[in-house]
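Co-fold these.
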Amino acid sequence: MSRQMILLTEGHSDPHTAKTACSVLRYRGEEVVAVLDSTRRGAPVSASLGVESPLTFIGSLEEAPRADTLLIGIAPPGGKIPVSWRPLILEAISRKMNIVSGLHDFLKDDCEFVEAARQHQVELVDVRSNTFREIARMVPLRRESIRILTVGHDCSVGKMVTAIETTRALERLGESASFIATGQTGIMVSGDGLPVDCIVSDFVSGAAEHLVAKHQHRDYLLIEGQGSLVHPSYSPVTLGLLHGSRPHGLIFCYEIGRETVTGVPHMKIPPLEQIMRLNEEIAGVLHPCRTIGIAVNGRRVDVERTWRECREAEDRFGIPACDVFRHGAAKLARAAQALRSDVLSDPIPAHPRED
Amino acid sequence: MSRQMILLTEGHSDPHTAKTACSVLRYRGEEVVAVLDSTRRGAPVSASLGVESPLTFIGSLEEAPRADTLLIGIAPPGGKIPVSWRPLILEAISRKMNIVSGLHDFLKDDCEFVEAARQHQVELVDVRSNTFREIARMVPLRRESIRILTVGHDCSVGKMVTAIETTRALERLGESASFIATGQTGIMVSGDGLPVDCIVSDFVSGAAEHLVAKHQHRDYLLIEGQGSLVHPSYSPVTLGLLHGSRPHGLIFCYEIGRETVTGVPHMKIPPLEQIMRLNEEIAGVLHPCRTIGIAVNGRRVDVERTWRECREAEDRFGIPACDVFRHGAAKLARAAQALRSDVLSDPIPAHPRED
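Predicted complex below.
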């Protein structure tokens, strides 16, 4: 049963603030009936959000009467629902629409929303809400299921998109592959996953282990990375994924021109070689792991500059590099196949660290 | 206003399961009026718990009528309150005693305890409960305040005790030093701190940063470490402390004879050199950091074997090594003074990574 969604981006219809809306539109476009921003009513959605779409913005809920779901399409710093949106959300509830939110502030903690939802018998879905409480235990995992985690030099450089595009490229090659969502947008797109940044720190590795164990019947798991091992705010979440998912391979994502840490502008990002080696080394403590490819994000530069960067990255690191939006992820999918072939032909059954 | 505490260790009076009781008795002994274990009534507490104490076990609450607080003195795997203790806790509440617990299961989530506490006007203190929600931001910190974090090759190797003993040894040398608690037992002992393993993973580094910023008026901060960077379950918590507290120095703690990871017996602990280097390297991404001393835990071996291990560790790593229980922490305190002197005489004002 497919949803009929309105994406709410009221007053914030740009690719950065509305990145949740952009990804849902890109990967679940068939479920999106409208995008609501009364400040841009009638304008084409694709021009504002940078995603191909035939839709134009609507200015009120009644313009899309078939819709059964309102999805909060922004991820503002702090995670709070703008006060000015409250009447709109209450109106959606009274129109019997379910509400989906990935914000840190939960709909279900808001008495007014809860009471309205009860009255109109609709569902409030807080994608970030969870009660996960299991530690990682190094459970045995199927040898034939290859785990690949996207990592990066900073947050917001395309780790989710790279994992999704590589999954799709593997599927096009006839492989059995799953995208493993670990953040609110990824969960909205895939309909499964755990929001690892909202899990109590003792259990964040356990959440990653749970996800790879659950999907290990697939031959390739493309795990959505979070943050970066050198990000002063989010590195514990990154490490929880690196240790909990025990990847065989990493895809390293970086954005051309990004030189300082997001949110901490007085800190320079260390050299890419250092970050890459640190990721491999700390993942390697639990499981043999190597970087198999580079996802270059060229969103702030032109096509020619991106091509040049990819060629230089291939020379510099000796592994395939591409911009998954501009070039597709076929190179990364082939690197994943080569990794799986190496792992399966490896006569050593386990890591020397395990008995 | 000092508390008059009964420590509850009913049926579990051994140094491992009752490690919370042991530490409270060792470091807050002046507040402990009795230890309750009806299965050992009349026996000397020191023999069971391995902590010097003139007390003998009591068999019921009425044997210590002056007491105003009952402290749950065990940390069982899973963190649950044993069912058989419920009548005892309810009796303590009806005797107008406050209840202090460090378990994952909160007293305040238990309707029966909450109702009884309301009726008898006593306080339920869940040391692990918190609503901390701030990310780390690399806030400027006072240059003269030296931050030293205890790390180790595994969990439960003496990181809290080493931090406390080094703080006390510095105080004996006339220095201004604070122990910074990051776990439930440390918080019970110090009366301050944050339970970092219970904080949402996005905010665990923020909690560590908050604590060092709060206490930076002191010249030495001895930060209680948690888990280990190579522990598959708890490494994200360890990294949150390493990045959030931005230590100048590390004290590396290990136990003689420990070869496999606690809770994951099929995993061998990597070589100490590798773990030490990994800690320095990943801390060094944000702030210059070096290991200044080794805390050898010789609880399972004799005095002679411990002395030999410490001498060998000093040769192997080129830094001071001692067993803080057997030898005191004076060597570590002097290493901290040497570190502070180096940092303050360093003509380079900040890390090359910062602008």
